[in-house]
Amino acid sequence: LEYRVGRRFVNVDTFAMVNLIAGEPLVPELIQGGFTAARVAAEIISMLTDAGRTARIRQGLAEVRRRLGGPGASRRAASAI
């Protein structure tokens, strides 16, 4: 119920922080009914066996890390505010 009500007020295509920062669906988001043991297993197997997918995810995660910057995020945020 909370998800159904909240979904009407949230206007984003993605929920995972890494996908929000990346600006694209970098990692799968298995939400509510989409989160099943079979779906999790399929995603894990795909990530472990598809070298191209693994490389894209790693490259995307490296870009997310670059965007976040090094240590001291709270200090930078405080300075920006």
Overall 3D geometry?
flat
In percent, how much strand structure appears in the residues? under 5%
Q: Round the mean pLDDT to the nearest integer and report it.
A: 89
Helices, by number, come to 5
**Which bin fits the share of residues in helices?**
55-70%
Any idea what the radius of gyration is? Answer: 16 Å
Count of individual beta strands: 0
Structural class: mainly alpha
CA distance, first residue to last residue:
36 Å
The helix-strand sequence is HHHHH
Question: Which residues form runs of ≥5 with pLDDT under 50?
Answer: none
The main β sheet shows up as: none
Summarize the model shown.
This protein is mainly α and 81 residues long.
Kindly describe this structure.
- The protein has 81 residues and is mainly α.
- 65% of the residues lie in helices and 0% in strands.
- The longest helix has 18 residues, at 51-68.
Topology overview:
Elements: H1 2-9, H2 17-22, H3 37-49, H4 51-68, H5 73-80
